[in-house]
Design goal:
alpha+beta; 5-stranded antiparallel sheet
């Protein structure tokens, strides 16, 4: 079974291939009465589309979204929302020599192992363009969460060895890397120039901070909120690790350092620290949720690499075409979208299908 759907109550199914006619998503479970238009979704897609700087692929795609169903007169109808983005700048000829050889770092070999057949043009469903459907759906989830006061701040924490040391939220959209630190962005640019000169690529870390998530979302065993968030973000092809709160650092801490205390503030129970990253026992605790995703270097590089053909013959492969020297900046909105989909699905787990009912529930 090939599973292309995510969520139990707010469900998203993505479809399409990198070099097919179009890609998109079908969203089921969106409540009626939400104000929504194509511009709301386009803002998100514009954050991930190619060709934004010299550090992204030169593929020229407008990534213009079309709402095919589920919206009438600017409001959601409560029925499935179908979204489509047409591919307009495919160059399948760039992949002709890859039909029978396996690219290092890609899913070519594993696709053949599973299906015995694959779309070699840009990787088909394993291409980064598959995330278009996730981002389009994430824009709708974010619209819902916005009406409830839940907000996201997602940015690049590091690229290669370059890590932010300052934080200015307004700086995030001022540079090509979505870094909240202008000096770090400049250093990241210099580092990438060196990578590009050497026909190489870089990875990095994305951080997502989610504010005003109510306490009580998630479950204590298999459907833990942190477990589902990790699954959602790990389902992004380029992500190789996820950590929440102090993450891997907890392995070097003492209990007295890692435990979050409680106190009462303005009549409300709050925590004195947030080492847990907003989730305890698999359930949200009302404080800011903090998640980080490690993104691998772009596997498509022009350096010669050792590989084999489908029949086992060895060869040296150089990958040409239009590829990002770093995936991280365009993946920022993808990580945010998967987090938004997860929080929305958790919020809807015991609610009705009307926006006014959800707002009343949230205000209780």
């Amino acid at each position: 079974m090939n599973k292309s759907s995510f969520g139990n109550h707010f469900t998203v199914t993505t479809w399409g291939e990198s070099h097919g006619k179009a890609l998109g998503a079908v969203i089921d479970g969106c409540p009626a009465g939400l104000s929504l238009n194509e511009e709301d979704i386009q803002k998100f897609l514009d954050r991930r589309k190619p060709g934004q700087s010299r550090y992204t692929t030169a593929r020229k795609e407008g990534d213009l979204v079309e709402i095919l169903s589920g919206v009438f007169e600017g409001k959601t109808t409560g029925t499935p929302i179908s979204l489509m983005v047409r591919n307009t700048d495919q160059r399948s000829r760039d992949y002709g020599n890859l039909a029978y050889s396996y690219r290092p770092g890609h899913a070519d070999f594993t696709f053949d192992a599973k299906y015995g057949f694959r779309d070699y043009r840009g990787g088909g469903r394993s291409s980064g363009r598959e995330t278009i459907g996730r981002v389009a759906a994430g824009a709708i989830a974010s619209r819902i969460l916005e009406t409830l006061g839940i907000s996201f701040c997602t940015y690049t924490k590091s690229i290669g060895p370059v890590e932010i040391t300052d934080f200015d939220a307004e700086e995030i959209t001022r540079n090509a890397f979505y870094m909240p630190d202008a000096s770090a962005a400049s250093a990241a640019g210099a580092y990438l120039e060196e990578c590009m000169k050497n026909q190489d690529s870089a990875g990095g870390i994305i951080e997502c901070r989610i504010k005003n998530v109510p306490a009580g979302l998630g479950n204590p065993v298999f459907e833990k909120l942190d477990a589902v968030l990790a699954q959602a973000v790990m389902s992004i092809g380029a992500v190789k690790a996820v950590e929440i709160g102090d993450g891997f650092q907890v392995s070097r801490m003492k209990g007295s350092e890692d435990n979050d205390g409680f106190h009462t503030e303005n009549g409300q129970i709050t925590k004195t620290s947030n080492h847990a990253g907003g989730i305890m026992g698999g359930i949200s605790d009302g404080s800011e949720i903090v998640l980080r995703a490690a993104v691998k270097p772009t596997p498509s590089i022009s350096q010669p690499q050792n590989t084999v053909t489908k029949d086992g013959s060895e060869l040296s492969l150089e990958i040409h075409g239009r590829h990002d020297p770093v995936i991280v900046p365009r993946a920022v909105v993808v990580v945010e979208s998967m987090c938004a989909l997860t929080i929305t699905d958790a919020l809807f787990s015991n609610m009705t299908s009307r926006m006014d009912s959800i707002q009343k529930f949230y205000q209780k």
